[in-house]
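The instructor's notes for this session suggest beginning with a concrete chain rather than abstract definitions. Hand out the sequence below and ask the class to guess, before any prediction is shown, which regions might be ordered.
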Amino acid sequence: MRQAETGIVNDSRKRSFLPDFCSIRMVFALVIGAELLAILLTLAGVESLQGFSTELSMRSLMIQWVALVGISSLCLVRNRLARLSSAQAGAAAWLLILCISLVTALTALWLLREPFYSSRSVAFLVESLGISAIVTALFLRYIYMQHLWRGQVEAESEARFQALQSRIRPHFLFNSMNTIANLTRADPKLAEEVVQDLSDLFRASLSDSRRRSTLGDELELVRGYLRIEGQRLGERLQVVWDLEALP
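After discussion, reveal the predicted structure:
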């Protein structure tokens, strides 16, 4: 069970934590998130409602451009990022978005004919890069935690499945079902007894292991198991009971 869980966790770590940026769902979610960010920043910085629509339009245009160009770039380089470790892939994605934000901010200043070295331009660049760095880092952190959570869920599910499979013992179940199928035609009453023995065995196997049982209960389960195997093995199964009176 522990080996199965460890194997699944290792497999999940080998997979890149970055999602599929080429999917329509991811693009739609990113566009909605970018627009919500634009609205939030506009509400935090606007001084009057008169300039709200203009400020929102400018911020939305810039943020949506960074988001769409960023997700397109990550889609193009997803195969290369998948070969990197989680830390390297996260750092590469973060730097890529920062570069796109810088180019977008410089392009906006050039279109507005603002001098690059003016205090207003420098403040705009610092604000743009700062917001981009923080938001991108939070986004990457979120999807990384989601990746770890999915890996843990997969590991727990696989571990439970392996534990259940080991308790069920598929080969014994299949052999018992074949025995019951043969007895159904030859001796229906005996087939019913075998079904009852099999039911008792699996009920005990799947019950809480911390539940206490008497020695008599355990011996009765052993007898039921031997009766089932005896129908399949016949005279090849020889059992000698050596039970002494308990003190």
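Then share the key points. The longest helix spans residues 119-168. DSSP finds nine helices and no strands in the chain.
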